[in-house]
UniProtKB/TrEMBL annotation, chain B:
Transmembrane segments: 6-28, 59-80, 86-109
GO molecular function, one term: quinone binding
Family of the protein in this entry: Belongs to the complex I subunit 3 family.
One GO CC term, this protein: plasma membrane
Subunit structure: NDH-1 is composed of 14 different subunits. Subunits NuoA, H, J, K, L, M, N constitute the membrane sector of the complex.
Membrane topology type: Multi-pass membrane protein
Key word Coiled coil present: no
Protein's organism: Polyangium jinanense
UniProt keyword annotations, A-Z: Cell membrane, Membrane, NAD, Oxidoreductase, Quinone, Translocase, Transmembrane, Transmembrane helix, Transport, Ubiquinone
Protein name: NADH-quinone oxidoreductase subunit A
E.C. numbers: 7.1.1.-
Length: 870, 118, 510
């Protein structure tokens, strides 16, 4: 151990290179030489790459400096590029990796669960002609995922982020022969691009405010983000009540509309909220949260081990990881935290409700994943980062186990039915416990874990999240002399708690519904095989010719094709290991019984949460044990209901419900028709816009415009007709219109001005500067010194007494003798106004940013000095 | 602006005058058309073909080449006037200019653009 | 006369002399194509393509050499200013233009013989057009600017109509010529008005005269504004900004693909170079640079229109070549965003614009080159259907195409990603948040149609009975693709150095 520590110093921890390189080498070898290696060679290569990587990751975890302050292990590969910050400093971006407790845990999950799934796939995919291609992608995925969790900065994380997205896309569409699978891959890719857009925006803002992309420095400089940003109206639109002054006769409706777009004061948020929301958009895309969850259920088109590894255990949790990783940024914005928690909560219950009546076993698991991811976001959203991350950890085991179990079932079903959709339909299963005991027992244990049966893994992690949601609130960060823009309401946490309990009940119900329908009762798969006919009469009234036939059936013997059978050891071994973890992993962080080794290791990563996340009220902490009650009750109620409905009554109540409320049933079964809604709204809108432009190109410009301009063009017609080819005169007409437009803009005068009233309250002084323009002259009215004629004076300084309103008018005349006018009403509040210790600025112009105040206000672009570099 | 007013006046007068003369002659002139009178006059001989004949495309090629060398001459004139002041630099510049044109001529020749029949 | 002057002009001189020599050599060469022959190496392309590429690369090498010597150290080089300005800005663009031209010439070396167009005139045309483009990028005076513009354009008009037997090609050439003349006339008229208003034809002099001009009613500003309108429109035509873009898809589609490549990269880069010089050099003062009433809001609006319209229409195209034409319009929109940002964010923004043009050049050459590679005699790859399944049958060609498309879409770690990143950064730095957001949204839209090509290449099979595209075999095209591919990756993995060079070049004009 000590020898290893000496070999790998913490600042140049090259073992990380080994962790990364092995899967990459595996991907390369399998991708390039896979065909020549043969299946055995490919299997050996893929397994040894991941296994080696796991051992290196384990060594990393053990070598991690532990104790009070925590610690990191870092390795810098090379300098990638550098950027200039807003202060003119150089910001180097390195290809660098650093590992703390959270990264190390994720590495173990990725390589460990990844190894088990590789082992499982080596048997599952054995008959596939694309065997080597599959393992090349799978290894490449592990490489990208490791890059993501080990990244030292957001640029490297983004490479991993895109990498896992690409691999996911390739693997969803692995059987691209079918149109459906290719479409699912494309859907995932495009939805993720929307998320990536958010992530890129977040990166840009972070770079601007914190001057770094390194997580350590972002978290250290997070206070810089407490800088108000006017998000509406944009640019230098008038922000005072100039509209009133300019339009005294405006009626109320007109005023209301104007004020909607040009409110009296700009709407302000902190930069941290912008970053948080943008980052959450990215996280929601990757982790399938409302509103971007639609791709994940479709992603089940990929091979089942892929669903287990990518779409349950690792990649989809990247969003949770990202939020936890940048926890300091989120803590600067209670509003962003609340958004995360509320959307997580909504996703949890929404997806759970869809899961209730799905027939496709993998779809049930997919919606369950979306729902569980929602729980994780509740955790990170209420500031329980360790708890949220812990749920990532436990979920990886039991959900991987469930998916692999489902894969094992599908494997067995497929051997009989040879139809992908039918072999995944739980209506065709049943009674499988007889044939596949190992799969059944591991699946059952994982069901208990996910349903939250104490003391299995899912119970501890889910309970921890719900308890934190119930008991804590986020306090707004100290922002100096500015008011906090939004505070965390006290009812929010409790609401989330109770919604979460309902979602947990549903979880227990649909998981056990799936379990009972799959493993209990009679095997219904006989019917699906070709040659089966529904018996027309009851047994015994048949004519003799068919007797044999029916006797076979009644004995439960298949008509033709093999019986379902248990999977080979390479597939059941991972199931057993994962089930063991699903049972015991919860004890790594069991707060109520004060046994939390993982919690202790993780604690230094989230130290910043201590100040921001506080107990909701006095004495709440005493409720810890009582509040566990509803969680256990949820498990009991959900499981019990499923047992009654599907085990005792054979699913009759579901049928009854279907008959009683066919509309609602269909709506839930059709996933609340959200896909159709998106299709109609988003896709339809883009299509419609494109159609409009093509139509405009074709009809409007060709037809109307050409005819309208025909009269004008008639004079040139004789000249142009000589060269008449196609639609060239239309092109010319478009150019002429463009020319007219540009000319119109530049020939017209523009009376814009900026008002600097930062000294309005203190000294009653306001500086109004008119925007410059070519050959412009200015005349001011109401400034005190009356001006008769236009002159070059571009900036005026006026004094306003307390309680007084001054109307200032700016006239502008340009070289074409055109004139334009702009009015301002400037009001200084009266003396009776409760004055705080420091003057509160009216427009962002006066705001000195927090975080050291090192940024001169005039450097904040777009808000104050629209003239810019002159 | 006022300096241009006479110019505009001239335009207007010219246009009005021309229009007026045409109109007056059309209106006042005696019209007495016979088929003989409607035939284009071609030195007393019978007319053949349409009145618009397309020139051969080769004509344009030669014309463009002519323009190139025409411009050469235009450039050489002022140079000769200032020859002494420009000195050797001027000579070298003009030399390289003519050399370039020689190259162009060679190219055109070799490409067969100077052959009318081919 | 001194060596400094010759060294300073050496990129131009090398390319011009090389062009003359190649032209004569071609005229005297015995190689003529027999229209019925199947021997693709018998025609003039086999020699001229390489000769042209080498000549243009020599120009690029000379430009790079002067860069390292330092153009400010060359005494006497300033004696041709302002007609030809030898500064780092010029050298940067000379390099990019020569690179683009050389790669296009290599593509022509494979394309022309393959499609029975093998006539030697193409190569002198490409060289002299590049000479014009280089003059355009270095012109600090309206006269030489116009001269360069016309030298460049005349060659390109001929190259567009190079496929004489094809009606589409001829139609494209006539359209481009007509509208191009229209735009050139506007530019010339604007120049004349500027001269009338300021008494200068050199850009620096114009700027100074405008800065000292008396404002007010009836002042010369009326002329200046009119001139600005005309010149902005003329330049917008050359960079094919919406609504002055309508010639672009027709001309790009009708022209032989190497010409399209050349127009998309060299002509566009030169037009942007001169746009930067004119807008910042001549219209940088006196209220014309105003954010309320000058050219920046006009260019910003053009940028938004260009990006949005081009991207939306590009998604509707059925022809990959036409899609790439619209994509090049969209990219012009992205660059225009950067141009707007130059007025506030200064040298960095201009550097990002120039870096973008470099990344755009290599990616676009690659994309068109890959499209050329996908077709062969009698079966030119044009539509999406033509590309069905190519990626699986010919993995190397498919990979190359995918790489360049990803770069155009702006996916890391390709060059295009950093090009876009820096433009977005510059526009955010300039406070142009709405423009930056529109740019990002547009690049999301663009991913759709770039991805569509890849979907066809990898996930579709050709319809039964449909002709199956067979990639051509050409060392020239392969070389061009390898060079462009390496550059795309190098610029994507180590963008800093080239960005610094671009910023340094940008600072030369400020």
């Amino acid at each position: 151990m000590e020898a290893l520590k000496a070999q790998f110093p913490a600042t140049n921890f090259t073992l990380l290179a080994v962790v990364l390189a092995l899967p990459l080498i595996g991907a390369f070898v399998n991708g390039v030489f896979g065909k020549r290696l043969g299946k055995a060679g490919v299997r050996l290569m893929a397994l040894s790459a991941l296994g080696g990587s796991f051992i290196a990751a384990l060594a990393t975890f053990l070598l991690l400096p532990k104790g009070e302050g925590g610690g990191t292990l870092a390795w810098t590969a090379w300098r990638w590029f550098s950027l200039n910050g807003r202060m003119g400093q150089t910001i180097p971006i390195d290809v660098a990796f650093s590992v703390d407790a959270m990264s190390a845990t994720m590495m173990l999950v990725v390589t460990g669960v990844g190894f088990l799934i590789h082992l499982y796939s080596s048997e599952y995919m054995i008959k596939d002609p694309g065997y080597h291609r599959f393992f090349a992608y799978l290894n490449l995925f592990c490489f990208a995922m490791l890059t993501l969790v080990m990244a030292d900065n957001m640029a490297v994380l983004f490479v991993g982020w895109e990498g896992v997205g690409l691999c996911s896309y390739l693997l969803i569409g692995f059987w691209f022969g079918e149109e459906k699978n290719a479409t699912a891959g494309k859907k995932a890719f495009i939805v993720n691009r929307i998320g990536d857009f958010g992530l890129l925006v977040a990166m840009a803002i972070l770079l601007y405010y914190t001057g770094s992309l390194r997580f350590a420095e972002i978290n250290a400089n997070a206070r810089n983000l407490l800088d108000p940003v006017t998000i509406w109206p944009f640019g230098n639109l008038p922000i005072e009540s100039q509209w009133d002054a300019a339009n005294p006769s405006a009626n109320a409706l007109y005023k209301a509309i104007v004020h909607l777009f040009l409110p009296e004061k700009g709407i302000q948020v902190y930069a941290s909220t912008l970053v948080g929301l943008a980052m959450f958009l990215g996280a929601a895309g990757k982790s399938a949260q409302i509103p971007l969850y639609v791709w994940l259920p479709d992603a089940m088109a990929g091979p089942t081990p892929v669903s287990a590894l990518i779409h349950a255990a690792t990649m989809v949790t990247a969003g949770v990881y990202l939020v936890a990783r940048t926890s300091a940024v989120f803590l600067m914005s209670p509003a962003a935290m609340a958004t995360v928690a509320v959307l997580g909560c909504a996703t949890a219950i929404f997806a759970a409700s869809i899961g209730l009546f799905q027939h496709d076993l993998k779809k049930v698991l997919a919606y369950s994943t979306v729902s569980q991811l929602g729980f994780m976001f509740i955790g990170v959203g209420v500031g329980a980062f360790a708890a949220g991350f812990f749920h990532v950890f436990t979920h990886a085991f039991f959900k991987a186990c469930l998916f692999l179990g489902a894969g094992s079932v599908i494997h067995a079903m497929h051997a009989r039915i040879h139809d992908t959709d039918k072999s995944q339909d739980i209506r065709n299963m049943g009674g499988l416990k007889k044939y596949m005991p190992i799969t059944r027992w591991t699946f059952l244990l994982s069901c208990f874990a996910i349903a939250g049966a104490p003391p299995l893994a899912g119970f501890w992690s889910k309970d921890e999240i719900l308890w934190r949601a119930f008991s804590t609130k986020i306090v707004a960060p100290e922002v100096g002399r500015l008011e906090p823009l939004w505070t965390w309401p006290s009812w929010l946490g409790q609401t989330i708690y109770w919604v979460g309990v309902v979602a947990a009940t549903m979880t227990a119900f649909y998981m056990f519904r799936a379990y009972f329908l799959t493993f209990h009762g009679e095997f219904r798969g006989w019917k699906v095989v070709a040659g089966w006919k529904e018996p027309k009469h009851a047994h015994g009234h048949d004519d003799h010719g068919h007797d044999d036939h029916h006797d076979h059936h009644d004995d439960g013997t298949p008509l033709e094709g093999p019986k379902p059978h248990e999977s080979p050891l390479a597939m059941t071994l991972p199931l057993m290991v994962l089930a063991a973890f699903a049972v015991f992993a919860g004890f790594l962080m069991a707060e109520p019984i004060h046994f939390e080794p993982l919690g202790h290791i993780l604690a230094p990563v989230f130290t910043r949460a201590h100040d921001a996340v506080v107990l909701r009220g006095e004495g709440v902490e005493k409720l810890m044990w009582p509040m566990m009650g509803p969680g256990v009750a949820a498990f009991l109620a959900g499981t019990g209901a499923a047992m009654v409905v599907y085990l005792n009554k054979g699913g009759a109540p579901e049928e009854a419900f279907k008959k009683a409320a066919p509309g609602l049933y269909k709506l839930i079964y059709d996933k609340w028709r959200i896909d159709e809604l998106y299709d109609a709204v988003v896709v339809g809108m883009v299509d419609a816009l494109a159609d409009i432009f093509t139509t405009a190109d074709k009809w409007l410009i060709d037809g109307v415009l050409a005819k309208l301009t025909a009269a004008i063009v008639a004079f040139f017609g004789t000249v142009l007709r000589t060269f008449q080819t196609g639609r060239v005169q239309v092109y010319g007409a478009a150019m002429a219109i463009g020319l007219a437009g540009v000319g119109f803009f530049l020939v017209r005068p523009h009376a814009d001005a900026t008002v600097d009233d930062s000294k309005l309250r203190s000294a009653g002084e306001v500086v109004i500067s008119a925007a410059p323009g070519p050959g412009y002259e200015y005349r001011w009215e109401g400034t005190g010194t009356e001006q008769k004629d236009f002159g070059p004076l571009r900036e005026v300084r006026i004094n306003v007494n307390p309680g007084e309103t001054k109307d200032v008018k700016l006239h502008v005349r340009n070289a074409f003798a055109q004139e334009a006018t702009h009015s301002f009403a400037i009001t200084r509040p009266g003396r009776g106004f409760p004055s705080s210790a420091a003057p509160v600025p009216v427009v962002p112009g006066g705001v000195v940013p927090a975080g050291g105040g090192s940024i001169p206000a005039k450097d904040i672009p777009g808000l104050i000095n629209p003239r810019g570099a002159q | 602006m006022s300096t241009y007013v006479p110019l505009f006046l001239l335009f207007i007068v010219a246009a009005v005058l021309a229009g007026a003369l045409f109109t007056i002659s059309t209106v006042l002139g005696p019209k007495n058309p016979t088929p003989e009178k409607m035939i284009p006059y071609e030195c007393g001989s019978e007319t053949t073909g349409g009145r618009f004949v397309k020139p051969s495309v080769k004509f344009y090629l030669t014309a463009i080449l002519f323009v190139v060398f025409d411009i050469e001459a235009v450039l050489i004139y002022p140079w000769t006037v200032e020859f002494k002041n420009l000195g050797w630099i001027g000579l070298a510049t003009m030399g390289s200019f003519i050399l370039m044109l020689v190259v162009a001529l060679l190219y055109v020749w070799k490409k067969g653009a100077l052959e009318w029949e081919k | 006369m001194n060596s400094g002057l010759f060294l300073g002009l050496s990129p131009l001189l090398v390319v011009s002399l090389g062009g003359l020599l190649l032209m004569v050599a071609e005229a005297f060469s015995k190689r003529r194509v027999d229209e019925t022959s199947d021997d693709r190496d018998a025609g003039p392309s086999s020699e001229l393509s390489l000769g042209t590429a080498v000549t243009l690369l020599a120009g690029a090498v000379f430009a790079a050499a002067i860069w390292f010597v330092g153009p400010e150290k060359l005494e006497g080089a300033s004696s041709v200013a302002p007609w030809v300005i030898v500064d780092r800005f010029t050298l940067f663009f000379s390099f990019v233009l020569c690179l683009g031209g050389a790669l296009a010439a290599l593509l022509a070396g494979g394309y022309l013989p393959e499609h029975r167009l093998d006539r030697g005139e193409f190569y002198p045309l490409i060289i002299f057009s590049t000479v014009g483009a280089m003059i355009l990028a270095s012109a600090g005076d309206l006269l030489s600017l116009f001269l360069g513009l016309e030298t460049m354009s005349l060659g390109v008009y001929a190259m567009v109509g190079f496929r004489r037997a094809s009606l589409r090609s001829t139609e494209a050439a006539v359209k481009y010529f007509l509208l191009g003349s229209f735009a050139a006339a506007l530019l010339l008229y604007g120049g004349a008005l500027l001269y009338g208003a300021t008494g200068h034809t050199d850009l620096a002099g114009i700027r100074e005269a405008i800065a000292n001009m008396q404002p007010g009613k009836g002042s010369n500003f009326a002329l200046v504004i009119t001139a600005a309108v005309l010149i902005i429109v003329g330049l917008a035509f050359k960079v094919s900004a919406v609504p002055f873009h309508m010639w672009t898809p027709d001309a790009y589609e009708g022209a032989p693909t190497p010409t399209t490549t050349y127009m998309a990269v060299a002509v566009k880069c030169a037009a942007f170079a001169t746009m930067l010089r004119v807008l910042i050099g001549a219209f940088g003062e006196g209220g014309l640079e105003s954010w309320a009433a000058g050219w920046p809001p006009v260019v910003a609006l053009l940028a938004v229109l260009t990006m949005t319209v081009a991207n939306l229409v590009a998604g509707q195209q059925e022809s990959v070549k036409r899609m790439l034409a619209y994509s090049s319009i969209a990219h012009a929109g992205y660059v225009l965003v950067g141009v707007v940002a130059t007025m506030r964010a200064g040298g960095d923004a201009q550097g990002s614009v120039m870096f973008y043009l470099l990344t755009y050049t290599v990616s676009t050459v690659g994309a068109f080159g890959a499209l050329i590679l996908m077709g062969s005699r009698g079966a030119e790859a044009v539509s999406y259907e033509d590309l069905a399944g190519v990626g699986k049958r010919h993995p190397a060609a498919g990979f190359a195409f995918s790489l360049f498309l990803l770069s155009l879409a702006g996916v890391p770690p390709t060059a295009g990603f950093f090009g876009k990143l820096y433009i977005v950064k510059a526009s955010i730095g300039a406070g142009l948040y709405p423009l930056a957001i529109i740019l990002l949204l547009n690049s999301v839209i663009s991913a759709y149609y770039y991805l569509r090509v890849m979907v066809y290449m990898y996930m579709r099979e050709p319809a039964p009975g449909a002709p199956i595209a067979k990639p051509m075999r050409s060392g020239y095209v392969a070389t061009a693709l390898v060079v462009a591919g390496v550059l795309v990756l190098v610029l994507g993995l180590w963008p800093t150095t080239s960005l610094q060079i671009a910023v340094e070049a940008a600072l030369a004009t400020r």
